[in-house]
Specification:
118 residues, mainly alpha, 4 helices, elongated
C-alpha cells in the first residue's frame, strides 16, 4: 500500500476500535498529517494577509471541525496501534510509555484484537 492508501485506511477504520493498525499505517498517517498541517499553516498566513474578517472566521470554524475529526482519528489510531502490539487501550493514558509502545513492531500472529493488519 502507498502512504496515501494507508492514510485513507486510517480514516475508514476510525470506528473499528477492536482491530489493529500496523506501524506503516501509523507512520504514513503522521507523515501526511504533517504535510497537511504545513499546507494549513500557509492557508492561515494567506487569510491573515488578506485581513478579511469573514475569511478568518471561516478558517477558524473549519480549523475547529478538522481538529475534532483529527482528534477522533488519532485516538482511534493510537488504540488500534496498541492492539497491534497486544496491549490494552488503557496504555494510551500512560504518557511516555505509550510513545515507546507506538514505535514497537506489532505481533506477527493474530491476537485477541484481530488478524495481522495489512
Amino acid at each position: 500500500m502507498t502512504k496515501f492508501q494507508y492514510y485513507q485506511h486510517t480514516f475508514k477504520n476510525t470506528f473499528k476500535l477492536f482491530s489493529r493498525a500496523s506501524f506503516e499505517e501509523f507512520i504514513s498517517f503522521f507523515y501526511i498529517t504533517v504535510l497537511f498541517g504545513l499546507f494549513w499553516a500557509f492557508v492561515y498566513i494567506f487569510t491573515e494577509i488578506l485581513e478579511n474578517p469573514g475569511l478568518i472566521l471561516a478558517y477558524s470554524y473549519i480549523s475547529n471541525i478538522l481538529l475534532v475529526i483529527y482528534l477522533l482519528v488519532i485516538t482511534s489510531l493510537f488504540i488500534r496501534r496498541l492492539h497491534d502490539i497486544g496491549k490494552s487501550s488503557i496504555y494510551i493514558f500512560v504518557p511516555l510509555y505509550n510513545v515507546v509502545l507506538m514505535m514497537q513492531e506489532g505481533e506477527k500472529q493474530p491476537n485477541k484484537y484481530g488478524e495481522i493488519p495489512v
